[in-house]
Design brief:
Blueprint: H1 2-15, H2 35-38, E1 67-69, E2 73-77, E3 95-96, E4 99-102, E5 107-110, E6 114-118, E7 127-132, E8 137-144, E9 150-158, E10 164-173, E11 176-188, E12 193-202, E13 209-219, E14 228-233, E15 237-239, E16 250-252, E17 260-265, E18 275-277, H3 288-291, E19 296-302, E20 316-321, E21 331-340, H4 353-358, E22 360-361, E23 371-372, E24 377-384, E25 394-405, E26 409-423, H5 427-439, E27 447-448, H6 453-469, H7 475-490, E28 493-494, H8 500-509, E29 510-511, E30 516-517, H9 525-529, H10 544-551, H11 562-576, H12 587-592, E31 598-599, E32 612-614, E33 627-629, H13 635-647, H14 657-672, H15 682-695, E34 698-703, E35 706-712, H16 716-732, H17 741-756, H18 766-773, H19 782-785, H20 788-799, H21 810-825, H22 835-844, H23 855-863, H24 874-889, H25 899-907, H26 918-935, H27 946-961, E36 969-972, E37 979-981, E38 986-988, E39 1005-1008, E40 1011-1016, E41 1027-1032, E42 1038-1044, H28 1058-1069, H29 1074-1077, H30 1079-1085, H31 1095-1105
Parallel strand pairs: 2-11, 12-17, 18-26, 19-26, 38-42
Antiparallel strand pairs: 1-6, 2-3, 4-5, 6-9, 7-10, 8-9, 10-11, 12-13, 13-20, 14-19, 15-16, 20-24, 21-23, 21-25, 22-24, 25-26, 27-28, 29-30, 31-32, 32-33, 34-35, 36-39, 37-38, 40-41, 41-42
């Protein structure tokens, strides 16, 4: 039970601190049982009475924050903003734009208006709400809401430049709603700073003049982003960047939002001046230092934590010529000058190295090789720097364009810009916002919105993010954003700290009603678990530390001090656990549980009840002052004593004083009831039982053929001595107790010695000797009648009998008698001799059954054998052998298999002798004849000659495979004129006489081999197109097919005459085609063999028909 209580104690100690049952803490700790020591607990401390602990950060939600990306800047302009209209006025510049002008490319291009949200794993889909600071509204279009990233686009709306767009993102995660803020700064679109130039130079000597007409813009080309921006300003209007059109493309708009200047020194203001500076009129020359220095303004803002080189801003200079009035030459880039500050410059000035390190063109060659010579035409120059300009640094940038007309009138026009660099340092603001994003404060962290404090914080955080994204934020704006956000943090209001667990602990260890403390779960766990008991201070050794800790509690703190509350909870829990109760009085218990009364631990159970216990002198005076071994007591009395000793729980405290007294009474009662056992006679009883058995033991003598009898097991002398000692012990045991165990052991040893010395009687052999003397039935002819094994078994049984056995082996002697009896009755006659049968079967095994027609006779003779007959049945066994031998002598062979031979003879009878060469035919005929002879042999060929049959079959097939067809072909008679082309199948060189009838008979072609020609004349007769088939005589097989060609004979009548000339003429003139007359006739129509059928062939044929020309047939 104590172990169970300790286990429960450990579990409760692990959980008690975290119990959360809110109860008032120490509401009346004013009176204890000892007023002088307890009165320090009068009342609990308040926050005002104690030093406020250190506040902790209560927000650390960075892991639950979404990854939010919003457009750093949303641009606004007039409603009609575009390439053709860049007018911006305070009353019309609030329309949200989704595209910006890229001045360098003269196109509208998209910029980032995407809002992207990646919520943490397990979060619900986010809800996005966008609103504008001040007047306006935002149009949001959902792009993807199916999962991370969730995206929307700002697609329009109204917003005021200088304000911001407030984004609120909400989602749920782990049962809590999270709110995240972001902001886009609202700014005007970026304008270019530049010049619309229209300048004319006239030479005084004549009316020839040169015009410069172009637009020059210096801009960020719509490339501004988070951390930088480029603004053009100080102009007098804007230019149509789409269509242009000279000065007509410029619209006057003298507001603060214009970036372009008009330089219109037209023909009416012509002067003989070759260098013009920014369009300012003057006398004699147009040097900048005379005219006072006019500039287009470009303000560049950058955050050095984002921008590391001016090239990242994408600043580009565009020269664009949209039209070419008369006398407009090629415009060439001539020179660029970079100067520090806002000085005047002249045509011959050089660049300042420091200014050029801040800002310079990376691709301007400054040698008049880069030019505009088409309409429309452009030049674009890029810019970078080698070092970042400091804040407020100004650079004057001037660029010259050169052009001349007809090598006479030269003109250079200069455009100048004042570039001011603004360094926007947002390090402190960025760090503060990063810290707040890491904290990711939520109202449920422990804030309240009393007085709108938390709402004000969210607004300040949103505005600070807008300032962080504001490209041209001033130091004052940045500082204000930092101060406002810090101020909002300082104005937080918080929920109260959670004192529930602390209150529960205090109420669990102190009870107002009993004015006492609960025992420590660590020092006195048994008293802690024995019930909700509260004891006064005088029950404990010391309670002063706990009282001091309780009175030191500071209450009414907010959630920032929750760590203090939790620490105080742990401290009280620790101090309370050090309380220790006073011990109870164990005097009576100690009188019995001591080393004088109890010696050692129980050697069987380890019990503290003792291995030896002092004898009760009153109850057993004969054993006074003796220690009695625990096993010498009765089990029940010792168990009662063991229970009393075990029930004496040591270490109990003062609340259990009565229980300790009861333990002493139980020990006294159990001791007085201890009862000594009688001696242990287990071994003695066993020896006496064995002796009693020996005194009455007998051995049984078995008769295999009838009734047996019994004899005494031990000798008379042994029985007499054992009986005397047995009687002495039997009557001497009465009245002995366990301490006299030695006498019992002596008796045991004496009786056991007599028992072990007892002698056995001799065994009785009467029946074994009788069985040995009985003879077998055929004992005089054993070799003939009995098997060797069965006779030997009888001999072995007889010989097994030996003398000298005692009663302990009477069973062995009995077994010998039984074995002789059984062996005689189990004698076995010899088997008949089957040697001749086995020989006959062996002989039959050398034959192949399939080779004989009547093999079943042999099989039947073998199946008729009956085995297991004895020697008296030998004649029947001999008959089996003779029957097998006779059946073998009368076996008849089966015929050979002629199936394949017959098939070979039938299959090869189709060959014809004249088709093949004599040599191959002779070999084939011999093989065929040999096969027929085997097939027709009488008597028929039997199975033993099957190899001869198979060889003949194979030879027929082999000879047939070697048959060679006799050659049949043609040869041209060398004495004749014929030509045979085996590739085309044409026979030419024949006379066009019209009397052909047989090429062989007429001596043109000879046939080689046994063959003949078969002629198929064409419709015209025996002429061109006649088919000649070479046929073999033996089997009328067509060996080749030829076609007769007689050049000039187109109609196939065998003549080349006027009729053919007529056909040739029709072919030449296209009246007939090759498809109309056929390939053969068309081939014959080429009478002159030039590869063409034309009027030349028709003329030749006409002459041949008049016998004034002859056709060459070769």
């Amino acid at each position: 039970m104590k172990i169970l209580l300790k286990l429960i104690s450990i579990l409760v100690s692990l959980t008690l601190t975290f119990a959360a049952v809110p109860q008032p803490a120490l509401q009346s700790l004013s009176v204890f049982n000892e007023p002088e020591s307890d009165k320090v607990l009068t009342g609990a401390s308040s926050q005002g009475e104690m030093v406020t602990p250190q506040a902790d950060e209560i927000s650390n939600n960075g892991a639950f924050a979404a990854v939010v990306s919003v457009p750093p800047v949303i641009r606004v302009a007039n409603a009609g903003y575009g390439l053709t209209n860049q007018a911006l006025t305070p009353t019309d510049s609030s329309t949200i734009q989704t595209q910006l002008i890229n001045y360098a490319a003269r196109t509208m291009q998209d910029y980032n208006t995407t809002v992207s949200v990646n919520v943490p794993a397990g979060a619900t889909a986010p809800v996005l709400v966008a609103s504008t600071q001040g007047a306006g509204s935002v149009n949001l279009t959902a792009i993807s809401l199916s999962g991370n990233p969730y995206t929307w686009k700002v697609t329009g709306g109204i917003a005021v430049a200088g304000n911001y767009i407030d984004y609120t993102i909400t989602y749920n995660l782990n049962g809590r709603q999270y709110t995240q803020k972001a902001a886009s700064y609202v700014d005007h679109v970026e304008l270019a700073a530049g010049w619309q130039t229209y300048v004319v130079r006239r030479n005084f000597s004549d009316v020839t003049h040169t015009r410069h007409e172009y637009t020059a813009t210096l801009s960020g080309s719509g490339s501004s982003g988070a951390g930088y921006a480029v603004y053009g300003s100080g102009g007098s209007g804007y230019y149509n960047m789409s269509a242009g059109g000279g000065t007509s493309g410029f619209t006057a708009n003298p507001s603060a939002y214009s970036g372009m200047k008009l330089w219109n020194e037209g023909y009416d203001k012509r002067e003989n001046c070759s260098v013009w500076y920014c369009g300012q009129p003057g006398k004699n020359n147009k040097d900048d230092n005379v005219d006072g220095g006019h500039r287009a303004n470009l303000d560049v803002y950058y955050d050095p934590s984002v921008v590391t080189n001016i090239s990242q801003l994408g600043i580009k200079l565009l020269y664009w010529r949209s039209t070419s009035p008369p006398k407009t030459p090629t415009l060439s880039q001539e020179k660029m000058i970079y100067l520090q500050g806002n000085p005047l410059f002249s045509n011959d000035d050089s660049s300042n190295a420091t200014a050029q390190s801040y800002f310079y063109s990376t691709n301007a060659l400054n040698n008049n090789t880069q030019s505009i010579n088409s309409d429309p035409g452009t030049m674009v120059f890029n810019f970078a720097g080698t070092v970042l300009p400091p804040d407020g640094k100004q650079v004057t940038f001037a660029s010259a364009i050169y052009g001349y007309f007809q090598q006479q009138v030269h003109l250079t026009t200069w455009n100048a810009w004042l570039i001011t660099f603004h360094v926007v340092n947002k390090a402190a603001l960025r760090s503060l916002i990063a810290a707040e994003d890491s904290a990711f404060r939520q109202i449920h962290d422990g804030y309240t919105d009393t007085g709108g404090a938390f709402t004000a914080y969210l607004n300040a955080l949103t505005k600070s993010k807008a300032v962080l994204n504001q490209p041209n934020a001033s130091p004052a704006q940045i500082s204000a954003a930092v101060n406002n956000l810090n101020s909002a943090k300082n104005n937080f209001t918080y929920v109260s700290a959670d004192y529930a667990a602390l209150d529960t602990l205090v109420d669990s260890i102190y009870d107002d009603s009993s004015l006492g403390f609960r025992p420590s779960i660590t020092k006195d766990p048994d008293y802690y678990y024995s019930g909700v008991n509260y004891y006064p201070s005088h029950y404990y050794i010391d309670t002063s530390v706990l009282k001091a800790t309780l009175t030191g509690i500071t209450y009414n703190l907010d959630i920032r001090y929750q760590a203090y509350v939790d620490t105080t909870l742990a401290e009280i829990n620790t101090v309370w656990r050090t309380l220790v109760l006073l011990d109870a009085d164990y005097t009576t218990v100690n009188d019995y549980i001591n080393t004088n009364t109890i010696s050692g631990q129980n050697d069987a159970t380890g019990s503290d009840a003792g291995n030896y216990i002092l004898a009760n002198a009153t109850k057993y005076p004969q054993y006074a002052n003796q220690m009695i071994y625990w096993r010498h007591f009765t089990l029940s009395s010792y168990n009662d004593w063991d229970t009393a000793v075990k029930g004496a729980t040591l270490g109990l405290k003062i609340p259990d004083e009565a229980a300790v007294a009861a333990m002493g009474a139980a020990l006294e009662s159990a001791y007085n009831n201890l009862t000594i056992l009688p001696p242990n006679c287990t071994e003695l009883n066993a020896v006496m039982a064995d002796t009693f058995t020996a005194l009455n033991s007998t051995a049984y003598v078995q008769n295999p053929e009838g009734e047996g009898h019994s004899i005494a097991y031990f000798t008379d002398a042994s029985v007499g001595t054992m009986q005397a000692k047995y009687n002495e012990i039997f009557y001497g045991l009465d009245g002995l107790l366990m301490p006299e165990q030695g006498t019992v052991i002596t008796w045991t040893d004496q009786l056991l010695a007599l028992y072990n010395a007892k002698k056995m009687n001799n065994a009785d052999y009467i029946y074994a000797d009788d069985q040995k003397a009985i003879p077998a039935t055929y004992e005089e002819e054993v070799a003939f009648y009995y098997t060797t094994d069965s006779w030997q078994a009888l001999i072995d049984a007889r010989n097994a009998v030996i003398t000298g056995k005692y009663t302990d082996e009477q069973s062995v002697v009995n077994e010998w008698a039984v074995n002789i009896y059984n062996a005689r009755n189990a004698l076995t006659l010899n088997e008949a001799n089957y040697a001749a049968v086995d020989a006959a079967i062996l002989a039959a095994g050398s034959f192949v059954p399939a080779n004989y027609q009547n093999w079943s006779v042999v099989a039947d003779a073998i199946d008729a054998i009956v085995y297991g007959l004895n020697i008296a049945q030998q004649s029947a066994v001999d008959g089996y052998a003779q029957a097998i031998t006779t059946a073998i002598e009368n076996l008849i062979y089966t015929d050979a298999d002629l199936t394949a031979l017959n098939a070979a003879i039938d299959a090869n009878a189709i060959y014809i002798e004249g088709v093949y060469t004599p040599t191959s035919w002779a070999a084939f005929a011999d093989a065929l004849a040999a096969g027929i002879a085997i097939r027709d042999a009488s008597p028929a060929t039997n199975i033993t000659q099957q190899p001869l049959v198979d060889a003949a079959t194979a030879e027929i097939g082999a000879a047939a495979a070697l048959l060679v067809e006799a050659f049949v072909g043609i040869e041209v008679n060398p004495a004749g004129s014929a030509i045979a082309d085996v590739e085309t199948g044409y026979i030419c060189g024949l006379p066009a006489s019209g009397d052909l009838y047989d090429l062989t008979a007429q001596g043109f072609i000879d046939i080689v081999g046994n063959g003949h020609f078969v002629y198929t004349p064409c419709a015209g007769g025996f002429g061109t197109g006649t088919k000649v088939e070479l046929v073999r005589d033996a089997d009328d097989k067509v060996m080749a097919v030829y076609t007769i060609i007689i050049f000039g004979d187109i109609n196939g009548d065998g003549l080349a005459d006027g009729r053919d000339a007529c056909i040739a003429d029709m072919l030449a003139t296209g009246m007939l085609t090759q498809n109309d007359v056929g390939d053969t006739a068309y081939f014959a129509a080429d009478a002159n063999h030039d590869g063409l059928v034309d009027t030349a062939d028709a003329l030749l044929l006409e002459q041949a028909g008049l016998f004034v020309a002859q056709i060459n047939q070769n």
